[in-house]
């Protein structure tokens, strides 16, 4: 993706830089990747990637779940290339991140920056909260104290 995407209600251009951490774990070399920098402005580093965070109306319940958690996250889905991790996709949808993890792709996460959290909240306010119609019907049935009569019967 390119940095030429203009910010909108659905898309937010961001730049991501990953950092490789090498350490020892029980005497063995261990490699750990982390997000070194996330910015709305270009990052002056040859390995920084221009990316776009995209929101979808169908994922509103997952966004709300993330925003309502004690520690909302931004997920960076990566592609493993040789000895490097390359950022491939940004998401605030935990379900999507879990799908990539289940498929064996590396997923990094960072605390969701307040500016991005406000942007997601604006998206949610514009489109409204998504309610699963099956869940709404179940709540209505549970709230109805009167048993329903069967048609043509006596109750």
How many helices does DSSP assign? Answer: 4
Overall residue-averaged pLDDT value? 85
Number of strands: 6
Q: Between the first and last Cα atoms, what is the distance in angstroms?
A: 62 Å
Proportion in helices:
25-40%
Give the structural class.
alpha+beta
Give the quaternary arrangement of the chains: single chain
What strand line-up does the widest sheet have? 2-1-3
Q: What characteristic shape results from the CA principal axes?
A: globular
Outline the biggest β-sheet. 3 strands, antiparallel
Q: N-to-C SSE series?
A: EEEHEEHEHH
Question: What proportion of the residues form beta strands (DSSP E)?
Answer: 35-45%
From the alpha-carbon coordinates, what is the Rg to the nearest angstrom?
21 Å
Report the uncertain regions: 146-155
How many structural domains does the protein architecture include? 1
Structure description:
The chain is of the alpha+beta class and 155 residues long. It has one domain (11-130). Helices cover 28% and strands 35% of the residues. It contains 4 helices and 6 strands; from the N terminus they run βββαββαβαα. The protein has helices at residues 60-68, 94-102, 114-127, 133-143; strands at residues 11-25, 28-39, 49-54, 73-81, 84-91, 107-111. The chain has a 3-stranded antiparallel beta sheet, with no helix packed on it. Strands 5-4-6 form a 3-stranded antiparallel beta sheet, covered by helices on one side. Strand 4 and strand 5 (84-91) form a beta hairpin. Helix 1 (60-68) packs across helix 3 (114-127). The longest helix has 14 residues, at 114-127. The chain is globular, with a radius of gyration of 21 Å. The N and C termini lie far apart (62 Å). The relative contact order is 0.16. Residues 136-145 have a biased composition (Basic and acidic residues). Residues 136-155 are annotated as: Disordered. InterPro entries: DUF3305. This is DUF3305 domain-containing protein.
